[in-house]
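Lab notebook, design round three. We kept the backbone fixed and only want residue identities now. Task for the bench partner: fill in a sequence for the structure below.
Input structure tokens:
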């Protein structure tokens, strides 16, 4: 049982130790909107159990911030809720879902049974740039925005305007080096710059401590440093080993961001 923290009026976050992941809830009058669904049906059932400590209302709407397994593999147990995501979130789940399943099993063999249970169930409501989602018909609503490529090609943010809260997905991550494996490090700084412009209060990252505008600005600056260092390496101004020591991240975690950024500069990600 994890605790819920109210980060804005009737907007709650719970932080699970597994992957240090945040799951968000926006309460309406007759139903609930859930932000992300975790890695498996069992983990989704844990969310459901924890939700009962908060509300008796049903989950009417789910939002997937992007198509990584820990944000959408728990979708299916929340049906018949409608599930929202970026149009390429569906593409990502359909084209990489099985690979993500196998990759996670290889990394955490103890989760094999749990992951084989997962029925991939991508969003059925999609958009390209913006969408307004009503939690109750005619009642409370949230805004979904696609701001550009960053952590993936389908990250979105969820704005709760009447509570000054933004769920930022993995476009920002606190307390650990962000995951660059599917990222677009050259685009990421500008995407987070657009994110910063929309922040009015709390910023809930996909993983780690809830932050504020200053936190998002720091993340933007770090992404800029990575992109800039990759450009210097790509131009032959400095070597990769020197660049690794100059990123904002621990040296043993810095190679992946830089190599991904250089791959993007060479046009290998398009
Ligand atoms: Zn992710």
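Proposed sequence:
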């Amino acid at each position: 049982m994890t605790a819920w923290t109210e980060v804005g009026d009737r907007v709650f976050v719970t932080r699970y130790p597994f992957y240090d992941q945040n799951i968000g809830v926006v309460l309406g009058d007759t139903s609930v909107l859930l932000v992300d669904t975790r890695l498996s049906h069992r983990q989704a059932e844990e969310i459901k159990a924890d939700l009962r400590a908060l509300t008796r209302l049903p989950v009417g709407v789910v939002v997937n911030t992007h198509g990584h397994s820990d944000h959408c593999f728990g979708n299916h147990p929340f049906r018949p809720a409608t599930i929202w995501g970026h149009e390429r979130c569906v593409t990502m789940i359909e084209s990489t879902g099985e690979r993500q399943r196998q990759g996670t099993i290889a990394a955490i063999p103890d989760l094999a049974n749990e992951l084989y249970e997962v029925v991939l169930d991508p969003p059925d409501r999609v958009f390209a740039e913006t969408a307004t989602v009503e939690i109750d018909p005619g009642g409370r609503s949230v805004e979904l925005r696609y701001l550009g490529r960053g952590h993936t090609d389908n990250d979105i943010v969820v704005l709760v305007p009447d509570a000054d809260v933004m769920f930022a997905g993995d476009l920002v991550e606190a307390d650990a080096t962000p995951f660059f494996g599917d990222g677009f490090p050259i685009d990421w700084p500008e995407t987070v710059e657009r994110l910063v412009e929309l922040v009015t209060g709390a910023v809930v990252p996909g993983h780690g401590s809830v932050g504020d505008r200053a936190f998002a600005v720091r993340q933007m600056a770090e992404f800029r440093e990575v992109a800039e260092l990759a450009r210097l390496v790509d131009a032959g101004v400095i070597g990769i080993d020197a660049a690794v020591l100059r990123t904002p991240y621990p040296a043993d975690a810095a190679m992946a961001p830089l190599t991904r950024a250089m791959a993007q500069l060479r046009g290998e990600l398009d």
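Keep this in mind before ordering anything: The pocket of zinc ion is lined by residues 66, 68, 151, 170, 179, 206 (CB under 6 Å).
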